[in-house]
Amino acid sequence: MSSHQREFDLHSLLENARETVEAENAKNPLDADLEEALVINTTKHNTLWCMGNAYTSQAFLIPNWNESKVYFDKASQYFQQAVDQVRSLCLYYSIEE
Fold this sequence. Notes:
By secondary structure, the chain is mainly alpha-helical. 75% of the residues lie in helices and 0% in strands. The protein has helices at residues 3-27, 45-60, 65-96. It holds the Pfam family TOM20_plant.
């Protein structure tokens, strides 16, 4: 798969996610949850990495360390899952060759 195709796939994934979230938020704007993004495709390391970024950003907005640590911990879990996904993909491709 070429890098252009991967970029196109990522763009399509994110655009689809944005449209889905936008539609759900229009139905019930008070019921927004970051983890709804995982409904899209939890096996995509990009989705997991974006979740880690989102939780990290949220954590920086909270001045209380104890409260923000919960978000940093969640971010760490998502980053680790993304890394594990990439490792398994690399292993898969090296075995396939």
